[in-house]
Amino acid sequence: MAELLDDVTVRQWLQAHPSWDRAGEEITCSVECASFPAALALVQQVGEEAESRNHHPDIDIRWRTVRFTLSTHSAGGLTKLDLDLADEIDRLAGSGHG
Predict the structure, then answer these.
(1) 31, 45, 76, 81: which is deepest, by most CB within 10 A?
(2) Which residue in 84, 55, 59, 57 sits closest to 70, CA to CA?
(3) Which residues contact residue 80 at a Cβ distance below 8 angstroms, ignoring those fewer than 6 apart?
(4) Sheet of 21-23, strand order
């Protein structure tokens, strides 16, 4: 099982990733895409990456806006798995999303 991260580690990561916010034991971000098909394409890319890692975000699509929520449910909070997948979401979405 993945180890929970301490609050200091999570805070430091969030400071370096301003498009992400913490909500309790989850981190979230919203990505505004150019169109609905672009939003679907992003979800597909993130889905393939998540499947390869066996670590899956909650995803909400509202027209061109995609909201990602990450938490390691089996560990009861945030782990390195979440931060690593968030980094990959940033890469796929483009660093200036938000």
Answers:
(1) 31
(2) 57
(3) 2, 3, 5
(4) 21-23, 26-32, 65-70, 58-62
Cβ count within 10 A of residue 91: 11
Q: What pLDDT, on a 0 to 100 scale, did the predictor assign at position 40?
A: 97
CA 52, CA 38: separation in Å to the nearest integer?
21
Cα torsion through 65, 96, 72, 48, rounded to 10: 70
Q: 3-state secondary structure string, the chain?
A: CCCECCHHHHHHHHHHCCCCEEECCEEEEEEECCCHHHHHHHHHHHHHHHHHHCCCCEEEEECCEEEEEECECCCCECEHHHHHHHHHHHHHHCCCCC
Q: Locate 54 and state its tokens.
A: 């066996």
Q: Check if the beta carbon of residue 67 is closer than 8 Å to that of residue 73.
A: no
